[in-house]
Amino acid sequence: MAQHLKKLLNENQELLPLLAKAQALSALQRHFISVAPPHLAQSSQVQVLGLQLGTLSIAVANAAVAAKLRQLAPELAAMMQSRGCEVSGIRVKVQVSFNRPQPKPAPHKLSKTAQNALNELSLKLKDSPLKFALEKMAKTKN
Fold first, then answer.
1. Residues with Cβ < 8 Å from 110, sequence gap 6 or more?
2. What is the average pLDDT score of the chain?
3. Which of 56, 49, 59 is CA-nearest to residue 86?
4. How many CB atoms lie within 10 A of CB 66?
5. Alpha-carbon span 69 to 125, nearest angstrom
6. CA torsion 65→68→74→76, rounded to 10°?
7. Between 112-124 and 129-139, two packed helices, what is the crossing angle to 10 degrees?
8. Which strand (E) or helix (H) includes residue 94?
9. What pTM did the predictor assign?
10. pLDDT the model gives residue 98
């Protein structure tokens, strides 16, 4: 899918600036993550917004991360300059509603032993919502 989109953007002259901007932001994001402390640069907490007149704007998920990044901003800007980025300063914005999609956790699967135990327990119970729930859980496929 990404290759098809990239091909479409490359072939359309009107969309080439959009592709260049997206690639530049992606490169800045990678550079920032590589120079920032790992516990602060988690991709789920920091997002590069853009670079304007040498000022790199980033959005963070909470005020604690923002405060620490503001303290480190001069040092981080210098490290980015050493990597060839034209960054003279860093502006940090807190965007509480900024959330990257989190991966869905894999559903928990019951072992055969657990399924058998649930089934045996449900057989000992009288008809009730609990009994029906246990039977349903025991029948789920791995």
1. 118, 137, 138, 140, 142
2. 85
3. 56
4. 20
5. 58
6. -50
7. 160
8. strand 89-94
9. 0.59
10. 52
Outline where the chain has alpha helix (H): 2-11, 16-35, 63-82, 112-124, 129-139
| Percent of the chain predicted with pLDDT > 90 | 34
Q: In the prediction, which pLDDT does 100 show?
A: 59
> How many angstroms separate the first and last alpha carbons of the chain?
31
Rounded-to-integer distance, Cα 86 and Cα 58, Å: 15
Q: Which two tokens stand for residue 80?
A: 């980015």
Tokens representing 140 are 């789920």
- Which of 24, 20, 19, 25 lies closest to 5, judged by CA? 19
How many angstroms separate the CA atoms of 126 and 84, rounded?
72
How many CB atoms neighbour CB 69 within 10 A?
A: 22
Structure tokens at 98: 């900024």
